[in-house]
Write a structure and sequence with these properties.
single chain, alpha+beta, 6-stranded antiparallel beta sheet, 28 helices
Length: 629
């Protein structure tokens, strides 16, 4: 796992200053503490920071092809590189290293951009072809590895694994994009189609760009997508056998490493499944780690301990104090853009614990998106059945009217929180699901904005790209469309960003076996009844893993990483929350209603209401703006 940097001139072959590449690389030492390198030629410069995982003594980057006519910087892992190497060698390719980077170079020279579908793994890379004078920028299918880029006024394109590398370039403008602020307040993160800074882009998952000198940069090209239009035939037992095959293949392929390897273990279905299959494939005890909070309601370590004992793992756990609020500032530094998913706090802590003993850790991320494991997906599936029975002309006035009359009851047990469901049923499926995934409603955001910001925002609403993605999804049902949007929008923007930044912050490589593209494609073909069974999501996966895991793990209520943010904002962070609207970078924009923010903070501090989510969003936005200003 590593970090890449680069500068490419689209207007002529102007020389690239190596010092600028050096500064970009210095900004991400955490991604690659084991070494670095820089290469420049007319019109191009590449930089690299290395975290050595495979071929520890070899595979330096930037790496030249065997014939010296192509150069590569590469972040990620190609899990089938040995099979590709053998195929290419049989066709005359020569290799000087034992790593996967040289395989990418040979594959490009043999197949061009058609090499991308042959690569199985997680990656973001830049490959410069000296003969064709072209630069290929490519990103893996699901977006596990990031790639940011910006077009500068002098005609150059700068790119890097993290935004902080682009910020190291003196010509990058630091102008906040108000539409990205609207996106952030909608979702709690800045999605992949946007950037907090105007002029900065993120190469979308499953896309590439092929840049040429003396030519305007072309738009990105999609080289992979997942389709929900087909259904896998076969009986339940056959599908279960296929599921197990794909799971075993995904896990075992990601256990390749020349450094200590382990796994995160929360005690939930997904991480427990990964650990079970790692234990099956390993001749040594799997190294596992988990964390919990010193507040019983937030602690899951007992479930992790149960799984660790069952598979005799070498397990370490640590209890984190619920008073560890000082992490808020560090998160702003790690993420660059505002990021309000509070589970980043425990994710960072479990990465720190893992890095004390291993360099690579397998995670359980991705199964909820691929197999319909989120509660909101199960609810949406049910709501779509209702929408199929009742026309919109009936649903909007009836359910909409009831929803507006029903009291908002965030404090009540889940079965009594009917307002959101009623309002969702009043909408079409896409708009209803967008409401379920988003953090704030359009009405809540409008109450925060000043007239100045409303003019800048115009008619744009953060939900619109998500709704459009669902409507255009290659899908057959509402559940299909919901999962497609989660895989393409929520997962790369939130889940994978969180894991990449927190793991790389401590120089740890995180691998996601449950996002193996063959497993994801299989999940997309499953009949709906194999994904959602009554009120249970991820049905086939749970049924398959019953041979390994007890029902206590498989069918307990999903908890996830829960954090004591609400308590912090009534205690040690109460003053920070109260000051958001009156002082600091956020207040200086003039985009937010100071009185409204003050009222939210006061009501939360007094305990009259729980406004922790929106206050945390605003606090993290304030800290991010301070770093970007």
């Amino acid at each position: 796992m590593c970090g890449i940097s680069g500068i490419f001139h689209t207007q002529g072959l102007k020389p690239v200053d190596p010092a600028r590449i050096e500064r970009m690389c210095d900004a991400i030492v955490h991604r690659g503490p084991d070494g670095h390198g820089i290469w420049t030629a007319p019109g191009i410069g590449l930089g690299f920071r290395r975290l050595a995982i495979i071929d520890l003594a070899g595979s330096p980057q930037p790496m030249a092809s065997a014939n010296g006519r192509a150069m590569l910087v590469f972040n990620g892992e190609i899990y089938n590189f040995r099979e590709l190497r053998a195929e290419l060698a049989a066709q005359g390719a020569h290799f000087h290293t034992d790593g996967d980077g040289e395989v990418i170079l040979a594959a490009w020279q043999r197949w061009g951009v058609d090499c991308l579908p042959r690569l199985q793994g997680m990656f973001a890379f830049a490959l410069y072809d000296l003969d064709r004078r072209t630069l290929l920028l490519a990103r893996d299918r699901l977006g596990v590895k990031p790639l940011h880029m910006a077009h500068l006024a002098d005609g150059s394109v700068i790119f890097g694994s993290e935004l902080k590398q682009l910020l190291a370039h003196p010509s990058l403008r630091r102008e906040i994009d108000p539409l990205a602020v609207e996106d952030y307040l909608t979702w709690g993160f800045v999605p992949e189609h946007a950037s907090i800074l105007k002029g900065v882009e993120k190469l979308a998952a499953g896309h590439y760009r092929l840049l040429r000198h003396d030519a305007p940069p072309p738009p990105p090209v999609q080289w992979w997508d997942v389709s929900f239009t087909e259904r896998e035939p076969g009986k339940a037992a056959d599908l279960e056998a296929q599921m197990l095959h794909h799971l075993r293949q995904a896990v075992s392929s990601r256990m390749l490493a020349d450094v200590p390897l382990g796994a995160f273990l929360s005690g939930g279905v997904d991480s427990s499944s990964v650990v079970a299959l790692m234990s099956e494939a390993s001749s040594h005890p799997v190294k596992t780690c988990s964390i919990g909070f010193d507040v019983p309601d937030f602690d899951e370590t007992a479930h992790a301990d149960l799984v660790a004992r069952k598979f005799a793992t070498s397990h370490r756990s640590r209890v984190v104090s619920a008073d560890d609020f000082a992490l808020a500032g560090r998160l702003a530094e790690i993420f660059d853009e505002p990021f309000a998913d509070a589970s980043a706090l425990p994710t960072l802590r479990v990465c720190e614990l893992a890095r004390e003993h291993v360099t690579v850790a397998l995670s359980g991320d991705g199964a909820d998106e691929a197999f319909a494991g989120y509660r909101r997906q199960v609810f949406h599936h049910r709501e779509e059945q209702v929408r199929g029975l009742l026309p919109g002309s009936f649903r909007e006035p009836v359910f909409g009217g009831l929803g507006r009359l029903y009291p908002k009851a965030d404090w009540a047990p889940r079965p009594f929180r009917a307002r959101a469901t009623l309002l969702s049923l009043a909408r079409n499926g896409e708009e209803g699901y967008a409401q379920a995934v988003s953090v704030t409603t359009p009405e809540q955001r409008a109450a925060l904005y000043t007239p100045d910001f409303e003019r800048l925002r115009g008619s744009y609403r953060g939900e619109a790209p998500f709704v459009d993605l669902m409507r255009k999804a290659p899908a057959r049902s509402g559940l299909d469309r919901a999962q497609y949007a989660d895989l393409k929008f929520h997962m790369p923007g939130d889940i994978l960003t969180k894991v990449d930044r927190t793991s790389m912050a401590v120089s740890l490589e995180a691998r996601e076996p449950l996002l193996d593209h063959r497993l994801v494609e299989f999940g997309a073909r499953l009949p709906e009844a194999m994904r959602v069974h009554r009120a249970t999501g991820k049905w086939l996966m749970k049924k398959t893993m019953r041979r390994y895991l007890p029902d206590e793990i498989l069918f307990r209520q999903k908890m996830g990483f829960v954090t004591p943010i609400a308590a912090w904002l009534r205690g040690p962070l109460a003053a920070d929350a109260a000051a958001i609207g009156t002082s600091g970078p956020l207040a200086a924009t003039g985009w937010f209603d100071r009185k409204r923010i003050g009222a939210l903070a006061a009501a939360h501090a007094s305990g009259r209401s729980d406004n922790s989510r929106v206050l945390w969003q605003l606090l993290m936005l304030d800290k991010a703006l301070g770093r970007l200003g």
